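Ferredoxin, pasting as requested.
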Amino acid sequence: MTHLTDPKMKECVEACNQCYQMCLHEAMNHCLESGGEHVAPDHFRLMMSCAEVCQTSVNLMLIHSPFSHQLCRVCADVCEACASSCEKIGMSDCARVCRECAKSCRAMAT
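Structure tokens follow.
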């Protein structure tokens, strides 16, 4: 990603990509295989929402959309909610990645 000259944006794109991959992978693999509270509708929807908003945030940043800062604010909120949900059921790695993304998105949103 050397074409990104703004270090804050580069960091945010990387954090969002990592969060997107983590949430999608964990939802489709760990959660589906574990069952129980891992596939509870609220948790599973939150994981999928987090993956989707992270991917969309990356896309808007890469095209330098004037709406990217607004979406980063929403992305931070979704990532925080997902992190809390993941923590409650012992998904500490996912929670950590979501929190890192939320922090980066909050910085990008300002």
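Note for the archive: The chain has one domain: 7-109.
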